[in-house]
Amino acid sequence: MKILNLTEGSFPINLSYKLESIDVPKIGSLIGNLEVKLRILRISNNLLKCDGSIKGDFTDICQNCLKETILNIFSEIDVTLKDLNEIHSDSSEQDQTHYQDLEYFNLQKFIEEETGLNYPDIVKCEESCIEENESLIQEKNFPFKKIRDLID
Ligand SMILES: [Zn+2]
């Protein structure tokens, strides 16, 4: 586990490395390595910027046809880093802010959060894979409606 102290030292910090595994709920499984490239800049005492990219391939299941699918994930990172103690006093309402203890900054946790945020909500084997079940569901519901109509 990589812990950085972002409250001191020299900036920018340039990082380029490969992760063999990540622990993010509800995403596919990583094939090979996740390539991480990051640059951390210090804007002021309690304000840092992080940009770079995360790249990796994942196997997942198509939500429609359940076929195994490979996703190539490439996420650009452009995030503001702030200390946890500012989470309540912060009124800027930027959604691209990651809060963490800047003295013991857990890089793995940051990467996992960013990967989870950038992972697609809907996984499809291909763009044109559409839901076949929809018409079936409608047909199934129809008889009930008819019966209710009769009762009324
Ligand atoms: Zn599909």
Residue share in β-strands: 35-45%
Rg (C-alpha, Å): 22 Å
Number of helices: 2
Unreliable runs, pLDDT <50, ≥5 residues?
none
Most strands sheet: 5 strands, mixed
Mean pLDDT: 87
Give the cofactors and ligands.
Answer: zinc ion
Helix fraction bin: 10-25%
The helix-strand sequence is: EEEEEEEHH
Overall strand count? 7
Q: Tell me, what's the shape? A: globular
**Which secondary-structure class do the elements indicate?**
alpha+beta
Q: Largest beta sheet: what is the strand line-up?
A: 2-3-4-5-6
Overall tally of structural domains = 1
Distance between the termini: 66 Å
Ordered list of secondary-structure elements with their pairings:
Blueprint: E1 3-4, E2 13-19, E3 29-44, E4 47-61, E5 68-82, E6 97-99, E7 105-106, H1 107-118, H2 133-151
Parallel strand pairs: 5-6
Antiparallel strand pairs: 1-7, 2-3, 3-4, 4-5
Overview of this structure, please?
- This protein has 152 residues and is α+β, with helices and mostly antiparallel strands.
- The chain has one domain.
- Helices cover 20% and strands 39% of the residues.
- The chain has two helices and seven strands.
- The chain has helices spanning 107-118, 133-151, and strands at residues 3-4, 13-19, 29-44, 47-61, 68-82, 97-99, 105-106.
- The strands form two sheets. It has a five-stranded mixed β-sheet, with helices on one face. Strands 1-7 form a two-stranded antiparallel sheet.
- The N and C termini lie far apart (66 Å).
- Residues 62, 64-65, 67, 124-125, 129 line the site of zinc ion (ZN).
